[in-house]
Design goal:
The structure is a homodimer of 483-residue chains. Chain A is α+β, with helices and mostly antiparallel strands and 483 residues long. Chain A folds into two domains: 350 residues, Aminopeptidase (3-Layer(aba) Sandwich), CATH 3.40.630.10; 118 residues, Alpha-Beta Plaits (2-Layer Sandwich). In chain A, strands 3, 4, 5, 6, 7, 8, 16, 17 and 18 form a nine-stranded mixed sheet that branches. In chain A, strands 9, 11, 12, 14 and 15 form a five-stranded antiparallel sheet that branches. A two-stranded antiparallel sheet of chain A has the order 1-2. In chain A, a hairpin with a 7-residue loop joins strand 1 and strand 2. The N and C termini of chain A lie far apart (56 Å). The N terminus of chain A is likely disordered. Bound molecules: zinc ion (2 copies). One zinc ion binds next to loops of chain B. One zinc ion binds next to loops of chain A.
């Protein structure tokens, strides 16, 4: 089993003090926290770095929104259900309505574009009207059998930021905003992140509007936008709604932070990945009458390839290789298969590393076939490329804002780590048009897209604090450079 | 790839002279061969060892019977079709009728038992009436998409033996016979070798009679026996129809003889085999967000197990391990499976070797799981036993008869080799009740249960010669011991 040594991880576990968690106090009231400074107008000499979210209000809000599209119940506690809030469904409309009302009540200007993306913008200091806002963004739609945190935490974290700023009367240098992106999951209309993709100019509006819901229904995206009243008039475009930056708070959807007992992932980008279907053709034969030297067993070859793919990926920094599908023909206990196909999903933090890994694997697989055919049996391997996604690199200034904020909030830089996202997010498209970074918080057991998806209230609050601080730091930086 | 060195095989190839094939003459007429001695009555001092079959008559007969149940055409030549003669079908009835008429015309007494097994017995020397015959046996039924040789060659070889004896007027010491066993393939009524199994007392008559045809039809074995007129009155039993011995000529259905350029397999028995379903349960996870050290990947584990099973089997003399079925859940490109099941078919010439191999593999698989779980991930492996078949050891006296006959017919003992059958045959059940052995002839590319199944006319004739000589040698031996 080609796996990294566990010892490095384990030894780190025991070095991390848990005083942070033990000493941090969590308010259970919704009253204004005591540490909020009173700032009526923007003052570059007054630090906002002591601003913190209200943890219980944050969590109450998150669970409040779960009333729309409540999903599968997995435990007895009221919050122990998943979510089933497909994009542009009635429950999504209710969540959207709440978002619009809430942000309007907080003094924001709310606009909706042709893709139903909702932008809530809070004014900056005088004279910055019309300037691009620094945005927090994520999504309120969920998987059909998803959890309470994926996407929702990011939007609710943005709303909490608006509340903290508003109740503290804090004025930012430039406008700040929160965006709810439409159909991020791609679970109802089958393109993920489709609406940030249109905003970024990378997916044509017509294509997006024409998307039919999955599962055989006839509803289109445009039709559903119209039906629930979220087909806005503003063009879905980074030109109509420019952003100074895009910060996204999201659950990790992986086990790394939990495993390493860290609190914050400073997301530097998104992995490159490539999906292949590898087909190995050998010779169908009887298991009882065909000795090893007369076999061309494609399943044995494929098995060895899968082992080698894991071994090779483990030797490249941050790379992964995985097989999730394997089919064979004809599929009989006493027949050596004649043909095996398997999916190969390879990933790496950079395109260059992924290039090297792919090259390595093509050579490995050729060697397996050469070995298998040394006996005069015929075997072949072919690769079909199914999907290619280049690495995404987030913006240094945003990454720095997140890093500095994490250190400030956590008080210990070892409680944060840099990461590369293994999943796609709206931040990928946002990053094409503005400086972007993401903030990850731990996912229990790495589980996501599942009702049992869970991030502790403490971790949600830490994430929201880092999110807000990142926006405020970026804003300060912006004042310093733009004036 | 755990495979035996090819060099041993290749070097042998080049040592074998082909003079045998080049110098043997094949009659193309159906007139009586010149080498048949004229023997009216049994004479222990007159050797029958020069008796040879008529190759063209043998092949003509084989192809003649293929008119009933002609199958898939794969080439332009009239004989380039497969067979589709399911047991107790109308075409099987026609082939049976031919067998009964032909053997009766050759002076045989023909009897049919309750399973439709047809026994054609040729008298021995005077005073041996009622003594058990030395039998040649195989089957006239085929797979639905089978070939012309599997089973048929054995029956036709028996008929050719009767013809040679009859035209030579040769009298044997004891009766000799040919049996056509019903539904050997198990392709229509789903128990293979069911009728020799009933004869041997190992399968209850009622169970066999009650078998329903596969594919959703309602026909039962008993009903079809009755319908085509082959529900005999004689009990299907080794007591009602005892055998002095059972010899079976059969195509190898594997590539060994062809690969080693040998002509005859002296079959010493049938491999032991065991079929298992191995289930590996790990942890379903996202391929992009789950680093190697947080994975419990059951497909990676299963792949390694498949590699190890091949490696281990190759280290035991004559053993095999094969996987023909592999399924996984949930089956998505970017999801590491949570569960993998695969079939494991292990075989060896002896039960003891198979015991050792199984023990070895259980330990190997446990180690794989232990390796995979060292990181704190949970994984388990469980074995389900689906089928167990003990090794079958044929009878020394029959094996000797085949070996001596092969040497005599081939003139070079290196053109024969001892083998263990990897497939089941009626000889397995026969061997429970009487001395038994089998004779294998080469299968082109090891292909069987396929229209393209092919054994050259020369090899068919050699096999039939060895078959006949084995019966005659066994008969001589019987005279020597029984008087
Ligand atoms: Zn999400
Ligand atoms: Zn057969």
């Amino acid at each position: 089993m080609a796996m990294a040594s566990p010892h490095r991880i384990l030894s780190r576990h025991h070095r991390i003090p848990f005083k942070f968690i033990l000493t941090r106090s969590f308010s259970t009231s919704t009253s204004r926290p005591q540490n909020v400074p009173h700032l009526r107008t923007y003052d570059p000499h007054t630090s906002l770095s002591s601003l913190r979210v209200n943890p219980s209000r944050l969590l109450n809000t998150l669970h409040h929104t779960s009333q729309w599209g409540t999903g599968h119940r997995y435990g007895a506690h009221p919050t122990e259900t998943g979510m089933s809030r497909l994009a542009l469904s009635d429950s999504d409309k209710s969540a959207r309505d709440w978002f619009v009302e809430t942000t309007k009540a907080l003094g924001c200007e709310v606009s909706v574009d042709e893709m139903g993306n909702i932008f809530a913008v809070r004014k900056g200091r005088e004279g910055t009207e019309g300037k691009a806002a620094t945005f927090v963004g994520s999504h309120l739609d969920t998987q059909p059998r998803g959890g309470r945190y994926d996407g929702v935490l990011g939007v609710v974290g943005g709303v909490e930021m608006l509340r903290v700023l508003e109740e503290g009367g804090a004025e930012t240098g430039f406008p700040v905003g929160v965006v709810n992106w439409t159909n991020e999951e791609g679970a109802r209309f089958p393109i993920s992140m489709v609406s940030s993709g249109v905003w970024a100019g990378e997916i044509p509006l017509e294509k997006a509007h024409g998307l039919k819901e999955v599962g055989g229904g006839t509803a289109t995206m445009r039709g559903e936008l119209e039906r629930i009243g979220y087909l806005g008039e503003m063009p879905a475009s980074h030109e109509a709604m420019p952003m100074a930056a895009h910060f996204e708070l999201h659950i990790e959807q992986g086990p790394i932070l939990e495993k390493e007992e860290r609190k914050i992932g400073i997301v530097k980008g998104v992995q490159a990945y490539r999906w292949f279907t590898v087909e190995v053709v050998g010779q169908e034969a009887h298991t009882g009458t065909t000795p090893f030297n007369a076999r061309a067993d494609p399943l044995l070859a494929a098995s060895w390839m899968i082992c080698l793919s894991n071994r090779a990926a483990a030797s490249f920094d941050g790379a992964l290789a995985s097989t999730g599908i394997l089919t064979l023909e004809p599929g009989s206990v006493n027949t050596i298969p004649g043909k095996v196909k398997f999916s190969l999903d390879i990933r790496a933090p950079t395109d260059k590393t992924l290039d090297m890994l792919e090259k390595h694997l093509r050579s490995d697989f050729d060697n397996v076939v050469a070995d298998a055919t040394r006996n005069g049996q015929e075997m072949s391997v072919t690769w079909q490329t199914d999907s290619v996604s280049s690495a995404v690199y987030f913006h240094d200034s945003c990454i720095k804002a997140v890093r500095d904020s994490a250190t400030a909030v956590l008080g210990d830089e070892n409680l944060a780590r840099e990461m590369t996202s293994g999943a796609g997010h709206d931040s990928v498209y946002a990053s094409r048009r503005c400086p972007t970074s993401m903030i990850f918080v731990p996912s229990r057991k790495g589980i996501s897209h599942n009702p049992k998806e869970y991030t502790s209230p403490e971790d949600c609050a830490i994430g929201a604090d880092v999110l807000m601080q990142s926006v405020l730091r970026f804003d300060r930086q912006r004042v310093a450079t733009e004036g």
